[in-house]
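Re: that chain you flagged

S.,

Sorry for the slow reply, it's been a week of failed gels. I finally had a moment to sit down with the sequence you sent. For the record, here it is as I used it:
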Amino acid sequence: MTRPHDLLAAVADGVDPGPFAVVRREGADHLELFTGTVRTADRLADIPLPDGPPGPRTLALVPYRQIGERGFACVDDGVPLECLVISEHHRIGLAEALDVLPDGPVRSTGAGFDIADDEYAATVGRVLADEIGRGEGANFVIHRTMRATVQGPPLVAALAALRRLLLRERGAYWTFVVHTGTRTLVGASPERHVSVDDGLVMMNPISGTFRHTGAAADRDALLRFLHDPKEVEELYMVLDEELKMMATVAEHGGQVVGPYLKEMAHLAHTEYLLAGRGSRDVREVLRETMFAPTVTGSPMENACRVIARHERVGRRYYAGVLALLGRDDAGRQTLDAPILIRTAELSPAGELRVPVGATLVRHSTAAGEVAETHAKAAGVLAALGLGPDAPEAGARPAARLGDDPEVRAALAARNAPLARFWLDQRTPGASALPGLTGLGALIVDGEDTFTGMLAHQLGALGLRVDRRDWREPAPVDGYDLVVVGPGPGDPGDLTAPKMATMRALLAGLLEAGRPTLAVCLGHQLLSGLLGLPLHRREAPYQGLQRDVGVFGATRRVGFYSTFTARADADRVASAYGPVELSRDPADGAVHALRGPGFAGVQFHPESVLSRDGLAVLADLLGHLLAHPALTGHGPVDRG
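Prediction finished late last night. Pasting the structure tokens below so you have them in one place:
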């Protein structure tokens, strides 16, 4: 077809023109039309990205099951990784597209969730009690799917739904239709997962859902939402989790920008932007960031286990990404990948699926999370004739509550208690401690990639840092410091291979007198070796920020834990020498400990929640490696 709108017109007349995609990116006054051939790939590394002139090369439809490439658990439903290898790329003005897209109503019948409200509520309760309540993680996303049957040609219905989304939805990162021949996807995704342009890697964590009806949200209700502790903590937790990913794909980790208000037709979200420089192949970036914590949970590896355990069905394309790969004018790789949420999948027979999920955190209620799934589905369901439309935009753009001074102040206030290490531009070497240059540290990862963030902070303090998975037995010789890191699970279950292995590692380090720092799970296992009893908290400390005493200084730090050691005194004797404890005055919970050549902290100094985390690490290095700390304190006597 010689003119772009001819293809759309042919589809509107019931003709299948072959594989194509139509995309409107955020803020654009035009749509992009991609045509080409479809091929499948087994791995992300197999997505084609040939050399050649600048422009898009491939649009990849990445299913959730690709998470298996990282060795993570999933229910494998066999849904393919499909790639539209682009042969032609055109731009269509928005007005021209609206003129040619079908504007008749979409009719769908037999609509209903595959999991009823009461059954979904029961699942929420189980996850809160059995997973978050037992230390398996801080948050988890559990999905369910609205199913229906579209009347008439599915491709015509998808383009009609696209037209309605273009007119009535707002704030979407991508609004799109993708047709591969075997399936058609239509949606308005609010969230960039990851993009790469000119070497700049960006991620865009979005969390917190404010539901509203009408043309605009109620300002006072929105302000209450912005101050709601559940919503604030939910965004902080996904921010931490995506910072873990940025720690892997960006050379110096990510810098946090925001937060902002993402305003859409039926709801509003809060969001941050993360940015950092990187040089990896964009397919590696995709692999290392599978998948967003906003649609899985944290820590990521265990979140995948929890999802498989409680959902018991494959996710198909829900929580995957739509990834556009290409080249820029200098031949460098580019990537733009929205998350596949607020998206409907239609089969050639008219079977319709609209999956949605809710983020479960320690403050969640079953009723609230059920309502959240309905709200998240509302926009795309309305476009498919299964719900009320949001008011159509008038001649003037809707007033943005994100520009309201009080709303902006409420958003800005969220950064006040956070770690400046992640919010400020960092100058290499500016935080280095005297005498640490050239010393080496090994971090043992207990299945929580907070260790990536910890590596950046220790590196900023001057250390050379390596990371190793707990499953990789190898000598620790040649390192000046060994860090036994965080991870999910019950530290009292020494029959679990991870707990037994990490405890044995700690015992060996203590026996050898090697400088050792233990964080969160590592701290709990260290406490057990020192004879301190472990307790499960009545209320989990998952994503909780507190001011606590740490060896005489008040520190604001972030916790991600369900278990804690307790003690009745500030000093105890152990088989490895005297131990000094920093305890909670209320219940004796041990927030930090130190002894001859070892130290442990129950909180996460590397977390964005730990405003004073870098200072804590500096002091601990002063104790462990006998070098002056950032705070100006001299070395601590290890005897």
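What I noticed first: The first strand starts at residue 20 and ends at 25.

Talk soon,
D.
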